[in-house]
Amino acid sequence: MQSYFQKDYRLSPVRCGVSLTGLALALAVSSTVHAQETDPEAVAQESSPGLIIVTARKRSETTLEVPETVTAFSEETLERANIEDIDDVGLAVPNLQLSTRADGFPNVTVRGLGGFGNTQGVGFYLDDVQLFSDASSRFGDLERIEVLKGPQGILYGGSNIGGAVKFVSARPELGIFEGRIAAKAGTDNYFDGEIELNVPLGSNWAFKAFAFGETDDSFLTNAQTPRQSGGIAAGSEDIGKREQYGVRGALYGDLGGPEIYLTARYNELDGPNNLWIRELDGDFQYSRTLDLSYNPRNTRETFGLTGHVDIPVGDLTLQSITSYTETESRRETDLDILNEFVLDLFRPEDFEAFTQEIRLSSDDSGPFVWQVGGYLLDLSRDLDSVLIIREGFCFIDPGACAPLSTNDDEILAEVPFEVSRRSREQIAAFVNASYEFGQIEVSGGLRVDNTTSERDNLDTGLSGKTKETVVLGRASVAWSNFDETTLLYATFSQGFEPGDFSLSNLSTANSLLQYNKETADQIEIGYKGRLLDNNLFLTIAAFYVDYQDRQFELQTVDPVTDTPVEGIVNVGDSTQKGIEVDFVWQLSNNLTFSGGAGYIDAEWDEGVVSPVTGLSLGGVQPPNVAKWSGSGALEYEGDIGNGEFFVRGQARYKSKSSTNAQFFDVPGDDYPIFVNPSYFVFDLAAGVDFGNLSFGARAENIFDKKYFTDVQEFPNFAGSLNPGEPGQIIIGTFGQAQRFILSVGYEF
User: Fold this and answer.
1) What pLDDT digit, counting tens, does each position of 238-294 carry?
2) Beta strand segments in 335-362, E
3) Residue whose C-alpha is closest to residue 645's, from 690, 578, 604
4) pLDDT tens string 698-729
5) Cα distance between residue 673 and residue 181, in whole Å
6) Which of 26, 45, 209, 387 is in Cβ range 3.0-4.6 Å of 63 for a Cys bridge?
7) Per DSSP, which regions of 655-706 are E strands?
8) CA proximity to 588, closest of 653, 523, 536, 658
């Protein structure tokens, strides 16, 4: 029996210039092909482009075999398409809105599922371990990335209502001593270095180490306009300067039956925090200059340990996955977005997460394949944020305090803002199985998930505790023709995001502001075909989602104390339906054309009203949904002397997307119901390999398109000092500007 470790992490090489959209839009159909008929690695080595081994169902299968949409990026595509962080993934996948929030956390929706801000809705995983505090980190040394679209409630549980993004790292290899050194340099003083080393430890063990360092001055600058006191912002004008370092070690052992995989990682980030671009109205100017009183920073340190154990028990396999992660972050925010000191926010936050998953799995040699397991999460978050009012605040009302002095940065007052102790415990049991009847496979699953959430707000003295049990189901049916070139499937899946308590409450409240769980039911039908003598890999999927009690994070101002309040509320129900198409076409031995597109029709159901204005939202497109999105790539590879080379051009598109303005704006106010405008981003890349030595060059966003990865209305903490509405302003987070990069690498 082939072990889980071998199948999961021995990805067959696929040199097909795979689709940016992920060729594996593998809405894949649950294949009727099991291991005794077709080995996954043998299938992945066929001439048909676009086939990648994935673990969407927590067992190794090609993208032909999974009865749901899976977008996969091979190691080669990650390198050639320059997919290094979640912003790059978000651009490359249709019907996915994914970017790094201005405070370093991810903003993400899939097919309109999930919510930006503190309501995540999409799970992020590193080697099957969910990430709760540093999903936007750079991991490097990846074998592939998988994007699972639609509710993933059965095998992945809560916080996966919209899907899951899985980072799969390259594991140590037995009996091989090898390594790699790579360096990149580019505009805006961008420098990046990586080193990895694989060391055999006897015949049964191997160790792998990976380390990286990255610096980037960014394309954003602080104007450093003199303040009323004559002082200017401290620090460099490179307000977006970012430094990130990380190291990961992995130990693998094959004990002639049991297998062990242990990892330890450490990441350190020193980067900007909440560098919002201030827009005066819905006609965006996209200024790349900010004018703040100082350069707000986000410092974050993460340490993580994981342990994977794979034990054969007769024809079964017992798998244990254990993880412990701790993250310390310190975030500063210039809330007023002015060069004067008005209001600043300091948010120290500590995360600790322990997870344990146990799975018992059948082998895949027969028509009946199953898994049964249990999961435990113990998560704690300690937040001690404080509002800081400095002497520069006096110029707003000179008669209210002492005249301005050169010490305008000195603190007048520190007001506890969000001081809380928060915990979540999830205990779940699940079962998933499939059975093959000739050309038809029927599969299904069930999960029982119990979540307990507690919160103590120390600044208000209020506490809350909630406990709920959710039962989720999944079912699919798939058909394959005899020559295994055409697959059809239909899948029903469910997911949820647990309820909890908001970060803040209104001054008149005598209990914590609680929000309830949100749930989603999805129906998906799909086709996948290998056409034109296996040179064209085409996938099509259509989906319908019933989304109930949607959670959204809203920022407003307490009408009594005139202080900021951030809360999560259940706005109501919405309906999403749409279609996705992907293809990978091997035009010749050297030329590959790949691409994909997605369409979403999303509307609030009738009867839904804005929790802020009370106006009807029925028929309105919910926030953070782009109706159209797509990407395409043309790649040529060939020989040059004793070496090989490639040239790749790619384009990514997002249509205009809705914003949270629908919650705040009313007819006649200063802001219209604005949208985030559409954008195209074009990249070029080329590289050449001469044996162990490689050189590369790339141009990102070659036409220097200005665009926001997200845009929203936000409380106007500076009042009349900021023009616009008294209560709200418009802020946006910039996407990557034009950048040119040269690279060199050496393997040994």
Assistant:
1) 999 999 999 999 999 999 999 999 999 999 999 999 999 999 888 899 999 999 999
2) 344-361
3) 690
4) 999 999 999 999 899 888 887 777 766 567 88
5) 50
6) 26
7) 679-690, 693-700
8) 536
Strand 277-279 and strand 728-734: the pairing is: antiparallel
pLDDT tens track for 286-296: 999 999 999 99
Strand partners, 105: none
Structural contact between residues 377 and 425, judged by C-beta atoms closer than 8 angstroms? yes
Count of domains for the chain: 1
Q: In angstroms, how far is CA 530 from the centroid of its own chain?
A: 30
Which two structure tokens, joined as six digits, stand for 169? Answer: 């790292």
How is residue 290 written in tokens? 């900010």
- pTM, two decimals, is 0.89
What's the pLDDT band for 1 if we cut at 50, 70, 90?
very low
Residue 403's pLDDT is what?
A: 59
Range of the domain at 248: 4-747
3-state secondary structure of 79: helix
SS3 81: coil
Residue 189: count other Cβ atoms within 10 Å of its Cβ.
Answer: 12
| Owner of token pair 């299904």 | 444
Closest CA to 411 of 386, 388, 385, 384: 388
Q: 111-120, 135-144, 357-366 — which is least confidently predicted?
A: 111-120
Longest dimension (CA), the chain: 85
pLDDT at 9 > cutoff 50: no
pLDDT for 667 equals 79
- In terms of Cβ atoms closer than 10 Å to its own Cβ (0-12, 13-18, 19+), residue 469 is exposed
290-316 residues labelled b (16+ CB within 10 A) or e (exposed): bbbbbbbbbbbebebebbbbbbbeeee
Q: Encode burial over 532-550: b for 16+ CB neighbours within 10 A, e otherwise.
A: eeebbbbbbbbbebbbbbb
- pLDDT score at 25: 29
Q: For 44-75, what is each residue's pLDDT tens digit?
A: 444 567 788 999 999 998 888 888 989 889 89
Residues constituting the chain? 748
Residue type at position 474: R
DSSP letters for 32-55? S--TTT--HHHHHTSSSTT--EE-
Q: Which of 134, 4, 20, 28 is nearest to 83 (CA)?
A: 20
Q: Smallest Cα–Cα separation from 97: which of 661, 625, 674, 678? A: 625
What CATH number corresponds to the domain at position 528? 2.40.170.20
594: nearest Cα among 20, 14, 24: 20
Token pair, residue 237, equals 């004008």
Selection from 570, 516, 519, 526 nearest residue 546 by Cα: 519
